[in-house]
Every structure is written in C-alpha cells, then in structure tokens.
Amino acid sequence: MNTNVATYTDWRDYYELTKPRVVMLIVFTAIVGMFVSVPSWPGVVPLLFGTLGIGLAASSAAVFNHVLDARIDIQMMRTRGRPLPQGKLTEKAALAFASVLCVISMIVLWFIVNPLTAGLTFFSLIGYAVVYTAWLKRTTPQNIVIGGAAGAAPPILGWTAVTNEIHSGALLLFLIVFVWTPPHFWALAIARKDEYAKVDIPMLPVTHGEAYTRLNILLYTILLVLVTILPYLIGMSGLIYLLTALVLDAYFLYYAVQMYRVPENPDLPMRTFKFSISYLGFLFAAILIDHYLLFRVNL
Prior knowledge:
The protein folds into two domains: 1-166, UbiA prenyltransferase (Tetracycline Repressor, domain 2, Orthogonal Bundle); 167-299. The protein is 78% helix and 0% strand. It has helices spanning 11-17, 20-36, 44-68, 70-73, 91-113, 115-139, 143-151, 154-163, 168-191, 193-198, 204-207, 210-233, 239-261, 268-298.
C-alpha cells in the first residue's frame, strides 16, 4: 500500500470512503426518529439540517474508520479494493476529508439544529471512529456489542434534532438497533472468519469458534424479536408495525436457526448478513408508516 502518493484523485474515491450504503441506512434510522418524535410534521429546519449534520458526521466516522483500518484492509479480500489500500488516495488526504466533514457537521448541528444533538453526534462519532475502530475492535471479541452503541445512536440523534430532549421512545429505537447489531455483524464475521484471523482481529468466531458464535446469533435474534414487539406493547406503534415486525422477525429467526442447525452450509452466514440489512430498513419503514397512519386514525 502506498500511503504517500496516490495514483490519481477522483471524487468517487472520496465518496467510497464515506461508506454510502451504510450511511444511508444510518441516516434513514435517524430520519425515522425525527418523524416519530412528533405526531405530525417535524419541521423543515430539523429535518433538513439535522439529516445533513448527522449524515456528514456518519460519513466522517466512516472515513476515519478507513484510515485506521487501512493497513489491515489491504490484507482482507473484502476490503482490499478500497481507495486507501489501492493507493488511490493518501491517508493524509483522507484524514483532511474526514476532519472537514466532522467540522461542518458540528457547525450545522450546533448552530442550526441544537447543541444537544451536536454533542451526542460528536460522542457517537468518537465512539465509532476511535473507541470501536482503534481500541475495541482490536482488543475484545465483544467489540461489536460494546461498540454497537455508537452505531445505534442515530434514532436518538434524529429525535433530539426535533425535540431537543432524549425521550423513552428514542431509547427504544436505539435498543432495537443495538440488539440487531451483534447477529447482523457476527454473521459477516463467520463468513470472513479466516480473514479476521489473518489480521489478528479478535472477532467472536475467531476467539470462541463458530459454534459458540452461531449460538449467540440465535440468542440475540430471539432477544431482538422480543425487543421489536415493545413499540406495539407500549402503544408507540400499531398493528401495521406489529404485523410487519412479526414477519421480519420470523424470517430473521429462521435464518438464525438454520445457521445454528446447519453449520456446514457455507452460504448461510452471508445470506443472513444481507437479509439483516433489509430487515432493519423494512422494520424502520414500518415504524414510520404505522406512525402516520396511527396519527391519522387518532385525528
């Protein structure tokens, strides 16, 4: 890897550093938090500038992650095609880009949205880019569980962008993403176990074996089923959300059970990982749709 001279500079390389697909899902959960925080329209300013600020912060964290992981990315098949391992961008340029994104996001959130959202967003950025990537990821097999708190923060950030307060409903959305994260990422870790072992990253299947990881995926998925029912039980969502959640939970649980019962199937971990991404997107879409239909019924 050449960290001093890039072969060429292309805006698409900078764009790729931001992990756009991941950021889109993160920002979507934040937007849902914005809309669900109030019974009607959340307002143009928090919606527009809150989304912009949270999105820029998430992009900044992704770029910092690329820089910190550049030397292990070159050794992994899944990540060696990224811009930094390929020498398309220098680490110095990537750090400057990440810093600019961070500063702009903080200015937008602090001065246009509210300081609470800015502060929480900054701490989640540090939690992912530094605490998780630079420390937890390299020191403990529970890295994704502890570090998952940073990735689960966007619904809270979206909620506070509109209301300027941390509400129990926001914490419940946080809990859903937090519990979803381990089975989502451990499925990928099983599929890429050899690569993580090669670069000495102590992911759970590397340190405790696949059987133990598959059991934990199943247990966390069962917990996720219970957690996703809570919005209906407390009256935060209605039947549309509940039915959607139950269908999605049934599919996720099916994948988790199959992974546990049929460990010799090499395709299941990656199929489970890919489904889990769609799972979260559809679940939060159901929360949003149900919220406004429930609001209209109550008018």
